[in-house]
Amino acid sequence: MLNLDKIRNQFPSLSIKNNRGDKIIFLDGPGGTQVPKAVIDSISDYYKFSNANTHGEFETSNKTDIIMDSLREKISIFLGAENKDCISIGHNMTTLNFSLARGLIKYFNEGDEVVITDLDHEANRGPWMILEEKGIKIIRVNILKNGEIDYDDFVKKINKKTVMIAMGMSSNAIGTVNNFQFIKEIIENKNILFLLDAVHYAPHFSINVTELNCDFLLCSSYKFYGPHLGFLYSRPGLLDKIETDRLTVQDQNSPYKIETGTLNHAACRGAEKALDFISSLGNGNSYRKKIEDAYKVIGEHEKALAKKLYSSLNKLENIDVVGPDFSDKRSPTVSFIHKNLSANKICKLLAKENICAWDGHFYAKKAIEKMGLSEIGGVTRLGISCYNSADEIGRTIRVLSKI
């Protein structure tokens, strides 16, 4: 069980109050979580004591080299990767995915097919559209009215021309957890690359890329209590076969060959401390075991709050909850529509009560369109993070019940 008071005391922003003295409630985590003090301090300390570029002969540069190596090592453990050389760092997931797409356009051939889904965030749809410039076909998988992928349609669209499948692990818009294991089984022993977008999955569930047997996986640390950075896992040796856009002076090997320009070293230090924060919530005799255990207790806590929120909103006459229920695996993200008010109006009313929520399509534009919700301004999204409390959920439900 999480020691919630101990966790909440580590987040300075949770003490913010409005002019009525109401404490702020952050249910905006799917758009970026709050950050613990250790992460904030580490970024500040980097600029105080370590600020330099890499590969120099002097002390501050040596410290930066250590920070960068340590982050790659810890991200590789966090993702269950083979080693740190599988981990590339970028400014965000979208930028990395665009860079990967520009490399793969040289790797694939005219007439090849890449399968994407209509449930995904545009960051795992838009970059692949550039492949059409070479005559590579983009095949789109439909979604069902309940916000789940149509797996019958998915299977039908995999054929001998399929060279890659790019799918999300969980929907950032409505919380659906996709059956990516099933798709991997379908393409087992076929020459099809398998890419997973774990941006919305990584904050809530542990990941083991070697067990997933994926070729690429992307995630972002600002979704799991860190600063804005993106990470790309590539199967060992695979990135070296791809001609990424890079300068001649850049290291030409994996994982560096997809990294453009100088990275944000201070943010990298902060991302490492975010991983340390997660691991501190678990028990075990190794960093990996601590992370796995942490996600068990995080998951139990978040699921309990999300189920309470989901079931309570379902009972309100003016609210329709969007997406699957909690009978199967689901992320703790609850989205809904109000029968009389737009999602934006709901968020404005919540903001007056010092409750943070998002409205719209959250860059999962195609999914919201397919579900017939774009005409009404999309959905209101509430996301549970490890620092949220039962009292906060209760207060949110009381406010929404009066709207």
What does it look like?
- With 403 residues, this protein is of the alpha/beta class.
- The longest helix is centred in the C-terminal third of the chain and has 28 residues.
- It is globular and about 60 Å long.
- 35% of the residues lie in helices and 14% in strands.
- The two termini are 34 Å apart.
- The strands form 3 sheets. A 7-stranded mixed beta sheet has the order 2-8-7-6-5-3-4, with helices on both faces. Strands 9-10-13-12 form a 4-stranded antiparallel beta sheet, covered by helices on one side.
- It has 2 domains: 146 residues, Aspartate Aminotransferase, domain 1, CATH 3.90.1150.10; 238 residues, Aspartate Aminotransferase, domain 2.
Count of structural domains = 2
User: In CATH terms, what is the architecture of the largest domain?
Assistant: 3-Layer(aba) Sandwich
User: CATH-wise, what's the superfamily of the largest domain?
Assistant: Type I PLP-dependent aspartate aminotransferase-like (Major domain)
Order of helices and strands: HEHHEHEEHEHEHEEHHEEHEEHEH
Major β-sheet strand ordering: 2-8-7-6-5-3-4
Rounded to an integer in angstroms, the radius of gyration calculated over CA atoms is: 21 Å
Q: Strand-residue fraction?
A: 5-15%
| Distance, first to last CA | 34 Å
CATH class of the largest domain: Alpha Beta
Mean pLDDT: 96
The description of the largest β-sheet is: 7 strands, mixed
